[in-house]
Amino acid sequence: MTRAIAGVLDYRRPPAEGPLAIASGLADRGDRTAGVVCAVDGFVDNARELARELGMPESAVAEAVIARGYERWQEGVLERLRGDFAVLVWDHERRRGLIACDQIGARSMFVRSAGSRLYFASDLIALLELLPNRPGPDHRALLEYLSLTPFAQSRTMYEGVRHFPAAHAMWLEEPGWRGFRYWSPTFAGVVDASEDELAEEVKRVMTAAVQRRLASRGATAITMSGGLDSTTVAALAQHVAPTNVRSYSTAMPDFPDEDESFYVERMREFTGIAATILTARPQGMVAAGLRDLQARLLPAVTTTDFVRQPLYEAARMDGAGMLLGGDGGDEVFGTRTPLIADRLVQGRVTSAVALARRHPGIWERPPLHRVLRGVLEIGLDTYSPHLVDDLMRQARGPAAYAPAWLHASEARLLFEARAQTSWKRQAGPRWWASLADALTRNHARLGLFDEMRTSVSRHGLDYRHPLLDFELVDLALRLPPELSFEPAFNRPLLRRAMRGSLPEEVRTRPTKTNFVPVALCALLEDLPTIKRVLSASDAEINRYAQPRVVADLLEGNLHAGRLNGDWLTQVWRLFMGECWLRDQADPTFSEDLLQTVGSDAPDGPILPFSPLSPNGAATYTRAQRNQR
Questions:
Q1: What is the pLDDT of residues 335-349, one digit of tens each?
Q2: pTM for the full predicted model
Q3: Which CATH class is domain 6-181?
Q4: Pseudo-torsion of CA 526, 596, 447, 572, nearest 10°?
């Protein structure tokens, strides 16, 4: 496990003490080079290559390499680094330095200024522990969390605490500090090669990305579903290190349409990977959320931590030190839908229509008028200038962009604060600009990296993302976008690349597992507890939400008896937001509530959800619930 970087910068400190006070994170392995000191939280994958370039031994630790690189290149050292990292560099003689996070935002850096002081840390809890007082809630960030809106760049749930966007850094120099972006993707055309050649290159780059992330000590664990992305990571890891890799998967016998045991077994037979399969039961969702809240001091973003936690613990018990997952595959290899708009704007209407007909999920040939309408909608959404966007938003009004339960005043605040789509300002074709934004900003904006890493670290494991490797992202941005269109299934180039490395049942599987049904059942088991917390007369959430409408939501009335993933997420965010707010006033609230979880009995048995609609919705009524 790597250590968090944390410190305080204050140029008003006495000269004898120096302006920079490091609370933690400085390694004691020779990371001092001619007065330059460095700390790294995370992994620098190309430290050996940089060491050779700098004339250092290949065995030099990453901190020493970066310190030497800083002496030669100053901030230019940052764009040469590859991996998942947060870094601090400080030059004692010049009384200046910098802090930064990696190009994809897999690792974080948090800051808060107070007068002449800048507090910083690569972990939110480490930062909060440094501060003399814990900040209150950030009103706008809380609204964005509750309304399922990605956080605006740099905001956190704590007032005044900012989170570095991907590829950003901050100079620490007298008399203060200033931020800057040290790297951004630029459009450089597409690779001119055959589809087979591109598939081979994709596999080569992915294999290298996986190999860089295997545990240096101990075993490597893979969280493997039966989907394409995680099985790709598992197959490549097994090929590279056949005796040091083990997969961990979830079986859902209560949900046969979603159970992946068959695909996991086929992976074990085909690749020889050691596989552990644990049964997921629809229970313990609230307990897992409360434990996560206590560990992170933030409300949960996802709804499936209760399914994943047993896998992490099993990996720890088996001696794993590193956990890999398939995050990012949807973005790296997904359909470049805005290409349709690019073709339309170029006047290539026939080509735009042909692409639309080849879009994944088009199983039947729709009428031409429907295709043309879809092409036009994509074109307007992709290319409409900000003035048009603003006019359309104003015409629709705040209510169109806010949940029904939000107070009108809060909906207006959310509406006015919502930033314009940043990727539309980026140079290059729209398919490329949208993809670059998704690959370098989205995960960090949603808070997914931090949540996953903290959740895994509770079991003594490090977590990394092979499919969001810098070199793979760079290749993805140069792949011909038309190769992402295939009506039978998505990610066709990845499927071609993995031919022969995955069992055909897995490689050509058109769908992925939907965890909404198991999460819905788990939430319904805990619904009495959720209702009790949200319906309390002193509920903090009442400052943001209308109690009557929230009550209707909890009863399912707003969804006309149809509970789906949207309902699940809204209820979960409201509940976790309330628990987080209550913890701010009373830090024992979530701990006390955790002691009572399970004591609230559901008001009747819950039937398994069947049948399911394609989007994971389930027909659910009290009559059905009380039938048994």
A1: 999 999 899 889 998
A2: 0.89
A3: alpha beta
A4: 30
